Amino acid sequence: MQALTVSSPAAPGTLAPQAVPSWLDTVSYPFAHRNLELPQGRMHYVDEGRGPTVLFIHGTPTWSFEWRHLIRALSATHRCIAPDLLGFGLSERPEHFDYSPEAHAQALAAFVDRLGLEDFTLVVHDYGGPIALPLALEHTERVRRLVILNSWMWSFEQNPDMVRRARLVSGALGRFLYRHLNFSLRVLMPSAYGDRRKLTPSIHRQYLAPFQDKHARGQVLWALARALTGSSAFYASQWERRRQLQGKPALILWGMRDTAFQPPMLERWKQALPEARVVKLADAGHWPHEETPEAVLQALRAFLQA
Q1: What are the tens digits of pLDDT across the range 17-50?
Q2: What is the pTM of this model?
Q3: Domains in the chain: ranges and CATH
Q4: Who's near 35: CB < 8 A, 6+ residues apart?
């Protein structure tokens, strides 16, 4: 497929039309491409539909492509916004950016400020949790509802299993695995699916394509691997403020076959958000919205309409 050029609808901060990379599946991801220049770099995002705003924040090693099923379905009744964090997907990969969760949180806050987003539903997955939840903790009036899919907002220092994993990937061996073997995309991602067959070659290709370069894998992906314990103070500060989230309507969607974020993490969320509606997805792993999109969509629609 040859590179295409798609013009972006007029919107605050929208840049000139962007060339679409030849690897992009424009059938599965048929959205207009928007770009916003931030102090940290150019952030690509999707902004589809009209109505109450839903902001989707992805984790690692993915990008806004992971939200495509939900965006296509919900954009008939909602405004669906899904940025690519800096360094991911179609966003810029600036050399000066340090790609820590703290830095991503600051860039995301700037993105939300520039778009003037208020009274929105925040949907987070994986690293999208600790990166985006400061939006709700620091500006509680902005975030109307919370939707959490296999994510976290606390330090892993007291979790021996996660500490062991973090030690594996944060040292010299982990850096080598990430840079030279594309470890997070070729090993960790398939292993966290409930059914690996659902990560088809065509879907996997959409996540592999942005990280063909070993320097980029070390710069962007390994930075977050190191931060599993390296940013413990950042996560702990969120957990200390968790009561600020109580009282907000919340939905927790959890893939029960996730080998990375196992059921005890769900119990931690239930402690933090005791009034949240919890939907356990028995057949899904770490990416419920990729693996069982119809079940996720059904629960999300009911939540948004409640």
Answers
A1: 457 899 999 999 999 999 999 999 999 999 999 9
A2: 0.94
A3: 4-305 (3.40.50.1820)
A4: 8, 13, 14, 15, 18, 42, 43, 44, 45
